[in-house]
Write a structure and sequence with these properties.
With 198 residues, the chain is mainly alpha-helical. It is built from eight helices and two strands. Helix content is 62%, strand content 4%. The chain is globular, with a radius of gyration of 17 Å. The N and C termini lie far apart (43 Å). Bound molecules: zinc ion. Zinc ion binds next to α5. It comes from Candidatus Falkowbacteria bacterium RIFOXYD2_FULL_34_120. Keywords: Membrane, Transmembrane, Transmembrane helix. InterPro entries: YdjM-like (IPR007404).
Length: 198
């Protein structure tokens, strides 16, 4: 990858994470407002944003195991039934406040990944490890279909066969003006304005 492509790749990653960062920032702000004050304000925001992004660590793991990141990377870090209890009970040893904050940020990431506005849709495996079906919240097609759509494993495997690289996916949806890139930036700016005025 040339240096120009690397810079574009990083900008794309930032834009793809913008919505999760905005949501993490907003949740931290609400938690501090309603259940604060906290001792380390800056740490609390960074902690929340980190947990709002954390499930996508499977993209990094894929990079290590496959040598490249595929856009359909969702794996065990995207299994709410496994991750939420582990994170909650681990962090709760130290702080109930931060345990709740971490779980809310993870939960909002899972919801965000489940709405069908997401271009690498298909939702996530909400019931894993008990079921390997993926579930998606259908917003765009709400009038014609069920609100929650189930995708069986076979259907997901077919989608995954496309094996688009992360860079091509970023170029398609985030490195130009699209619904995804605009919503992400807008959400991030809005959450920063809320930080200042509220
Ligand atoms: Zn994700």
């Amino acid at each position: 990858m040339k240096i120009y492509d690397k810079i574009l790749f990083l900008i794309g990653i930032f834009l793809a994470g913008a919505m999760d960062m905005a949501l993490g920032n907003f949740i931290a702000h609400c938690m501090i407002k309603f259940f604060g004050p906290v001792e380390h304000v800056m740490f609390t925001y960074i902690f929340a944003i980190a947990f709002a992004l954390l499930p996508d660590i499977d993209a990094l793991l894929q990079r290590v195991s496959h040598g490249k990141i595929l856009s359909n990377h969702r794996n065990w870090p995207h299994w709410p039934l496994l991750i939420l209890p582990i994170i909650f009970f681990t962090i709760n040893i130290f702080s109930f406040f931060y345990a709740v904050l971490a779980c809310l940020c993870l939960f909002i990431h899972y919801i965000h990944d489940s709405v069908d506005l997401q271009e690498n849709g298909g939702g996530i495996e909400w019931l894993a490890p008990f079921s390997d079906s993926q579930y998606q919240i259908s917003i765009k097609r709400i009038k014609t279909e069920k609100l929650i759509v189930e995708f069986p494993k076979e259907k997901i495997e077919k989608i995954k066969k496309k094996k688009e690289t992360m860079y091509r996916w970023l170029k398609k949806y985030y490195l130009k003006i699209t619904e995804n890139s605009l919503l992400g930036i807008l959400a991030l700016i809005t959450s920063l304005i809320i930080n200042i005025i509220w």
